[in-house]
Amino acid sequence: MTIAEYNDSGLEVSNQCKQAMIDRAEAEVLDAYIKPLMGADAEATDYVNEIMTLAYCLLLRRNIVKTRFGAEKKKDTFGQQIDTTDDELNSMIANLAFMTINTLKANATQEQPYKVKDIANIGYYII
Predict the structure, then answer these.
(1) Distance (Å, rounded) from C-alpha 5 to C-alpha 82?
(2) H or E element: which one contains 90?
(3) pTM of this structure
(4) If DSSP codes are grouped into helix, strand and coil, which group holds residue 123?
(5) Which of 32, 58, 89, 127 could form a disulfide with 120 if both were Cys (CB 3.0 to 4.6 A apart)?
(6) What digits encode the pLDDT tens for the residues 55-66?
(7) Are the C-beta atoms of residues 17 and 10 closer than 8 Å to each other?
């Protein structure tokens, strides 16, 4: 999906984000979350909203980690430093992911235990 599609769906992605980063996040989310729940033959076109939401969570997490190892610390709109332990960020990621994962689990075609790889560190195992 494109940056415009993310923004149109209410998931704010900067125009500075490279399309390759989005494509990679979507492919990884498909393999890590969607296929373990919906089966190896799950197609991205059948789970567009779920992939966008989980890829958005992954992009948020990676942006914080990237800036953490860079020369400048990521700041929010109030100039406060943000990091991977930021409660507001973690809460937002968990809330978005919780709804999406529960929707997928309700329609899962695979048997438990699911072989989900929590690459976005969304707390899948505690949900």
Answers:
(1) 26
(2) helix 87-106
(3) 0.81
(4) coil
(5) 58
(6) 999 998 887 544
(7) no
Six-digit token string for 62: 């990676």
Please state the domain extents for the chain: 3-126
Spell out the residues 6+ positions from residue 30 whose beta carbon is closer than 8 angstroms to its own: 42, 44, 47, 51
Residue with tokens 């329609």: 107
124 pLDDT above the threshold of 50: yes
Q: 84 phi and psi, to 5 degrees?
A: -70, -10
Please state the length of the chain: 127
Which residues are registered as beta bridge partners of 75?
A: 81
> What's the pLDDT tens digit per position in 2-31?
999 999 999 988 888 899 999 999 999 999
CA distance 120 to 73: 20
